[in-house]
Specification:
single chain, 267 residues, alpha/beta, Rossmann fold, Helicase, Ruva Protein, domain 3, 2 domains, two-stranded antiparallel sheet, 10 helices, elongated, binds S-adenosylmethionine
Length: 267
């Protein structure tokens, strides 16, 4: 089926609009998602339906969340009844814990790059009901998500997401696959939530706050960066060096620090 475009639609920068136009990449991304009839597929930012059409062809149905009214109106005219359920909303403020209540979700999208990190954080509380997430993001963001301790790109995003998901970078997509072409290379990442039983027990709020503080000023030693949570003695007692830098610690180290801080608070 040929792709129909919304004539005269000017890509809106504020909505991070870069539309996929290259069949090769559209098909390759859809194959990576591997949509099947019966899957509860939910797309963030369907735009002009490049991926939407492909996924609906394979699975028969999807739900999509689009913020741009003009695109939402266009999309409504593109599909047969039953093929597409459209939620005209901001994916950042949608309650991902309750949308399509009672269903296990397969989330995907070529995300608006200007809000990609906040969106990933907005989805975190819903990880328990997600089967998998496939996203196109800036390559640099995917590198940060999947970075290992000791690398320059390892930071808050790596720790918070690696705690909750197993993540794999699948492949890069060149700027020329989009209209307008972005300035940077993009990558496809697959995120599969870990089973609840695999998660290291931790108070989520203390963990999130401690990880944020630890990476706020990357050059600080740990004892200075997390001084509001634990003193040097408390850090050493966990077998972690107070003079270490946050970027050398594993996810398990951060969990230990958060548990140490929570225990100290309640003592
Ligand atoms: N999926 C299409 C494609 O691959 O060609 C469009 C991708 S474009 C990078 C991002 C899409 O997300 C646009 O359609 C944009 O309007 C939409 N969008 C931007 N911010 C959004 C938000 N907060 N909530 C929902 N959709 C949003």
């Amino acid at each position: 089926m040929t792709q129909e475009w919304l004539e005269g639609h000017h890509a809106r920068k504020r909505f991070g609009q870069n539309f996929l136009h290259d069949r090769h990449w559209i098909e390759r991304i859809a194959r990576a998602i591997d949509p099947k009839p019966g899957d509860e597929l939910i797309e963030i930012g369907p735009g002009q339906a490049a991926l939407t059409r492909e996924v609906v062809n394979l699975a028969g149905h999807e739900t999509a969340v689009e913020i741009d009214r003009d695109l939402a109106a266009f999309l409504r005219g593109q599909f047969q009844p039953g093929e597409l359920d459209l939620i005209e909303a901001d994916a950042l403020t949608l309650d991902w814990r309750t949308v399509l209540e009672g269903r296990r979700l397969r989330v995907f999208g070529n995300l608006p790059y200007n809000i990609s990190s906040p969106l990933l954080f907005a989805l975190l509380p819903a990880a328990g009901r997600v089967i998998d997430q496939h996203f196109m993001l800036q390559k640099e963001v995917v590198d940060r998500m999947t970075a290992q301790p000791g690398s320059k790109t390892y930071g808050r995003l790596s720790v918070m997401l690696q705690y909750r998901y197993v993540m794999h970078k699948l492949f890069d997509v060149p700027p020329g696959a989009f209209t307008p072409a972005p300035k940077v290379t993009s990558s496809i990442v697959r995120m599969v939530p870990k089973a609840e039983s695999e998660l290291l027990p931790v108070d989520g709020e203390v963990f999130g706050a401690l990880v944020a503080a630890a990476f706020q000023q990357r050059r600080k030693t740990l004892r200075n960066a997390v001084a509001d949570f634990l003193d040097a003695e408390g850090i050493s007692a966990l077998g972690i060096s107070p003079t270490a830098r946050a970027e050398t610690l594993t996810v398990a180290d951060f969990v230990a620090l958060a548990n140490g801080a929570a225990a100290r608070r309640s003592a």
